Amino acid sequence: MRTERAQLEEALRNEALAGATLLASAVGSELQKGDVERINSLAWALLNQPNIQYVRVLDANGRVVTQREKTFYVTDVLIEQVPVLELDKTLGTVEIAVRMTDLRKQQKKRFDYSVAVACLASLAAVAFSAWISRRLTLPLVRLREAARRMADGDRSVRVPEAGSEETVALAIAFNQMAAAVADHQALLQEEIRKATASLAEKVETLESLDRIFRSALAQNARRDEVIGTIIDHIRVRVPAEAISIAVWEEEKKIAECYIWESQGAGILSLSIPLDQTRLLAVAAAGQPRICADLRREAMGLQEEELLALGYHSTVYVPLMAGERALGAIIVSSREPGFYTDEMVGRLTEMAQAVSISLNNANAYTSLNNAFWQMIKTLSRAIDMRDAYTGGHSEQVMLLSRAIARLAGLPDGEIETIGIAGLLHDVGKIGIRESILQKPGPLSADEAAEMKSHPAMGAELLRPIRMFRKVADIVHHHHERFDGKGYPLGLRGEEIPIASRVIAIADAIDAMASDRPYRKGLPPSVIQEELRRHAGTQFDPHLATIVVEHFDELMALVLRTADATV
To answer: Which DSSP state fits 48?
Structure first.
């Protein structure tokens, strides 16, 4: 009985702790912002649990921020407190009181059962004493062993209903008592399971929102990456055979739809005219729209396509940034009437996090586009100083990124190599135009000045924090694999891999471009030069990769050259 009482009290305590921990994890940011209304809403949601008497949130100074309690007050409660933490800082405390009423009832029942067991044991002892001469020892031993096993927690134990009338009656009574205890324990475990499942559901929702927020706040969070993360979380939280994230801007008439299907391969991107969908109507309403059966709806072109693909029920959830619509979440199922209010509620809970993620991704995309445009403008200004190398920097950027991707370098490094490709000749700003535009061979002094441009470029870039890696790449892009390059004469693996990539891209474009003293070399000659200088001028591994994909890379050079012309 003590063990069962302790287990019941521990389960109740765990329920209180789970609820307090869940609320503490949810109200941290709200305490920081002072959003009492949101804290009240979260406290009310937790108060709906049947055993909770009151929920109280206190700030770091012990002042009550909010307190919500049941109308019918019970004094017999179990109180648990959980701190609200942000990193190592305590923002406040969540206090939850759980009613002990059910626990006391269970304890009383256990006491009644104990009395019954004691009575039965007494009867068994009397029967044992009275009938020991009639060899009734074995049934009583069985009954005693069953009682011991039951006391140890085995609720499935039963005793054979055999022997004398008294022994049979005793066995029946014991079995009835054991069955009643087992049924009650099963009922209690089911209630605990439901409460645990409900809490787990809420924890999963909070965890999904947290991961979406993290993707929204991550550095370099491009929109396609953020949308991929969002779709992954929606798939976990809401059953769907198709998920679309539609994104648009107010001045545009087109919605960019990122579509995932259970039978598809990855995420597809598709542009859809907004006037062919109900997306604007959903955004204007600002509320989810459930289409239980598309066959009974006034359909636009988008709904007709969904129905043609076999989808019958669809939910639209708008994504709002204040009063401005960013897009919508669309989930679809082949089963009519599939989506419940609970599923729509999950989507609605996630919509705010998704909106923040998209807003952040859109801002990053705009900044990234502006950043690249600035760098391209700078590289064109550099190329314009040399009448014979117009567009050279952009060519080197495209070739460098393609070679780095073929070499299996990480995406982040490929991005840095692209920037370095655009800026690899930035040091030519300090070279006299008479040298840059000289149609014939350079003198020794002129060649020495020209060879100073990698170090000069690195010196220009290095003070800019975001360009420090780029500066190192630019500094060494004229080094040779055999150590005969400049400015430092590095050799082999001493040369950064990114600099080796740009060196070979720079050489390819230089050989393919027309010069005052020669026409651009034919592709076959360029390919032969790469083979001949592999291991001396060029990294042999990179040279092999370039030769293997030569036609693909030359097509890139020629296509870009045509676009430049």
So the answer is: T
